[in-house]
């Protein structure tokens, strides 16, 4: 909510002509290339990237915030009107925005969206002069730092965390150079490690440099036939929220492409029946068929026949929310490509029946058939996701027509970034799929 408060403050300062911050505000962009400013057509172009859903959720959240603040501002307008007409002092408490420049007429969605984008693309953390943490140290709060926030992003190969540092000695923000600079050379800063998806969503660009920390967020929904208590307990044991039926895993662009938990998830997921005994679960999940099935599972969508109570309990044991039918996993661009919980999920998923005894579940999940099935499950799912992308043209290899005297349109720029995002996600999914193929060969 601190970011939201800063966004509202920026709205106020923009509406005050004599504001001390007007020179800074006037040089801020009027439009951004974050999905908040995308047209409907441009948003549709994001499919099938996970960013499509995340962009809609962000737009919904910003819209809800705007409506909330607009209603409060209308209350302030009404209070001012009553106060102006009344000869007596009004006893009710003043609304929060009564002394602000905000009115129902000037507080528009475009203004609030612009302010949110300014904060999202330029935010830095600075120590508060008022708020302290539990040990008496200043709390870090979001802020805008004029001039400094004009610096563009550049990667660093070193273990680097903060490009912007606040100096207590000089009471100012300092930029830490990630390399040596020559005179007249543009100075860049390191924004931090994040996925290309997050860069586009929050910063409005896709880095041109190779992002070795790029990840793909893989979501796997759990059908009702896979929600048996035994299966959910196994998923819960993997660390997933008990009530979840949507499981998320990270797929990396570099090896290892995902954590072992992803394959373990697949092993549990594909079990037809989850044994009640832990030994039986492990035996079933470790079978060659289960391992192949688990890899195949990660490649395919989840059918609705996998939601029995025993299976759901195993997913619950992995840490997933019990009621969820969609499970999200993050896939990384580097090894390990995904967490172990994803494979464990696949092991449970591919079980035909989930045994009631924990030992039987472990025996079934650990069988060679189950292990092969889990790898097959993951492999097929990645292949299915790849097919959804279709043919994506590398925008770097495309020459866009540039009319004389005009710059490239924002639509061209945004669609180019969308294509680059999709290419980075395709690379992650392809590496994860190839990794599953390798595991299947080793399990054969």
Automatic annotation (TrEMBL):
Keyword S-adenosyl-L-methionine found: yes
PROSITE patterns: SAM_MT85_SETD3
Known EC number: 2.1.1.85
Keywords assigned by UniProt, alphabetized: Methyltransferase, S-adenosyl-L-methionine, Transferase
GO terms assigned for molecular function: protein-L-histidine N-tele-methyltransferase activity; protein-lysine N-methyltransferase activity
Similarity comment text for this entry: Belongs to the class V-like SAM-binding methyltransferase superfamily. SETD3 actin-histidine methyltransferase family.
GO biological process annotation, one example: methylation
Catalytic activity: L-histidyl-[protein] + S-adenosyl-L-methionine = N(tele)-methyl-L-histidyl-[protein] + S-adenosyl-L-homocysteine + H(+)
The UniProt record lists the keyword Hydrolase: no
Organism: Loa loa
Taxon lineage: Eukaryota, Metazoa, Ecdysozoa, Nematoda, Chromadorea
SUPFAM superfamilies given in the database record: SET domain
Name under which the protein is recorded: protein-histidine N-methyltransferase
Enzyme class: transferase
């Amino acid at each position: 909510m601190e970011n939201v408060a800063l966004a509202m403050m920026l709205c106020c300062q923009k509406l005050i002509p004599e504001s001390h911050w007007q020179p800074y505000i006037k040089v801020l962009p009027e439009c951004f290339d974050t999905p908040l400013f995308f047209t409907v057509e441009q948003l549709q172009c994001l499919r099938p990237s996970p960013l499509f859903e995340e962009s809609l959720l962000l737009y919904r959240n910003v819209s809800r915030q705007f409506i909330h603040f607009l209603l409060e501002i209308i209350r302030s307008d009404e209070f001012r009107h009553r106060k102006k007409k009344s000869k007596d002092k009004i006893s009710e408490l003043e609304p929060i925005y009564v002394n602000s420049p905000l009115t129902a007429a000037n507080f528009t969605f475009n203004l609030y969206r612009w302010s949110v984008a300014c904060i999202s693309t330029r935010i830095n953390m600075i120590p508060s002069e008022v708020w302290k943490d539990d040990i008496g140290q200043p709390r870090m709060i979001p802020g805008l730092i004029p001039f400094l926030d004009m610096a563009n992003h550049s990667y660093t190969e070193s273990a680097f965390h903060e490009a912007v540092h606040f100096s207590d000695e000089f009471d100012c923000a300092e930029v830490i150079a990630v390399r040596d600079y020559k005179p007249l050379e543009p100075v860049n800063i390191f924004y931090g490690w994040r996925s290309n998806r997050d860069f586009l969503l929050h910063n409005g660009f896709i880095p041109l440099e190779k992002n070795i920390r790029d990840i793909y967020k893989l979501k796997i929904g759990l059908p009702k036939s896979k929600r048996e208590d035994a299966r959910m307990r196994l998923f819960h044991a993997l660390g997933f929220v008990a009530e979840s039926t949507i499981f998320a895993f990270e797929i990396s662009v570099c090896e290892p492409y995902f954590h072992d938990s992803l394959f373990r998830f697949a092993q549990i997921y594909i079990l037809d029946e989850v044994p009640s005994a832990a030994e039986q679960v492990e035996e079933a999940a470790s079978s060659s068929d289960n391992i192949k099935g688990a890899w195949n599972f990660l490649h395919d969508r989840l059918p609705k026949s996998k939601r029995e109570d025993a299976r759901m309990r195993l997913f619950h044991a992995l840490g997933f929310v019990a009621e969820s039918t969609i499970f999200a996993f993050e896939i990384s661009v580097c090894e390990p490509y995904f967490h172990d919980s994803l494979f464990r999920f696949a092991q449970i998923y591919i079980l035909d029946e989930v045994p009631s005894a924990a030992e039987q579940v472990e025996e079934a999940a650990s069988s060679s058939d189950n292990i092969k099935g889990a790898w097959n499950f993951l492999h097929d799912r990645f292949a299915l996701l790849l097919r959804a992308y279709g043919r994506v043209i590398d925008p770097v290899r495309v020459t866009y027509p540039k009319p004389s005297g005009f710059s490239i349109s924002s639509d061209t720029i945004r669609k180019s970034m969308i294509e680059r995002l999709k290419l980075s996600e395709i690379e992650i999914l392809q590496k994860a799929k190839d990794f599953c193929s390798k595991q299947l060969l080793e399990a054969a």
